[in-house]
Amino acid sequence: MGWGTRLFRSLLLSLAGNKFAEKLAMKYGLKLGASRFVAGQSLDEALDRVQAMNAQGISVTLDHLGEGITRLEEATEFKAQYISLLEGIARRQVDSTVSLKPSQMGLKLDPEQCYANIREIVATARRYGNSVTIDMEDSSCTDATIELTRRLHDEGLDNAGTVIQAYLYRSLADIDTLTRCGVSLRLVKGAYKEPKQLAFPKLTDVNDNFLRMIKLRLDGGSYTAIATHDERIIAWTKQYVRTRDVPLDHFEFQMLYGVRTMLQERLAAEGYTVRCYVPYGKMWYPYFVRRLAERPANVWFIIKNRFKR
């Protein structure tokens, strides 16, 4: 990653918490192109998209967007939204798990209440035969997120998994710990702005660490979601599972809604499990900014879309 790209990414990520930029985006963003990455603002809109993707052989994980809340009452509201989401998935009989963020459930306000909220969602998912991935946020949340996931497993709620980010130096050690606990994991490169004391500054090092993480999980026989749009990493994984005779039902590829759609369809046609991360909801702005920061091409898509109107 060149210095220009790093600067561009840093500037974009700084906008994720900018209230003025958020206000403008919330007014115009979905109309100007954010709808490419966000599947609407309502549950029914999201479930309609899931149904269409299922028809193409693609599984889904739904994320009701929301993070950085300032009141516990907001966490209670989001918990209720997730209960409704799980009920909607069961009612529509679509192939979808759910993903949520600890900060959305009150992690930074009251960790115990956050745990209680997530526990209720995970228990509800278990009753419906579903599972929950607890998303990993910035490094200030890493220890707490891993701990609450392990705590859920200790209580027998093993339908909860979490996410490990390849750009953090600590990730291999975390994978070793969570694999021994039997936790399902989604492996990602990472999309937050982190200091070089905690994270690899070079993309080549992140990619190398990502491959080490995949190898560690597949060799351990633990179910793993490999979340990437990087075709080199996908090709490496396909070759690795062939040479090691890893069953196809031991892993899946995960990608984002609106990104590399044709690649998702191609992998599904080849017989791989493909799960698309589909976000929806009214609090879509921080998620949208991170998607723009990941690839400059996403910004040009928005600009071109603006001038086509």
TrEMBL record:
Q: Which UniProt keywords apply?
A: FAD, Flavoprotein, Nucleotide-binding, Oxidoreductase, Proline metabolism
Q: What Pfam families does the database record attribute to this sequence? A: Pro_dh (PF01619)
Q: What is its EC number?
A: 1.5.5.2
Q: In which pathway does it act?
A: Amino-acid degradation; L-proline degradation into L-glutamate; L-glutamate from L-proline: step 1/2
- Tell me which InterPro entries the record gives: FAD-linked_oxidoreductase-like, PRODH_bac_arc, Proline_DH_dom, Proline_oxidase
Against Gene3D superfamilies, the record matches this protein to: 3.20.20.220
Domain (Proline dehydrogenase) ranges: 46-301
- List required co-factors: FAD
Q: Which reaction does it catalyse?
A: L-proline + a quinone = (S)-1-pyrroline-5-carboxylate + a quinol + H(+)
Q: Which PANTHER family match?
A: PROLINE DEHYDROGENASE 1, MITOCHONDRIAL, PROLINE OXIDASE
Write the protein's name: proline dehydrogenase
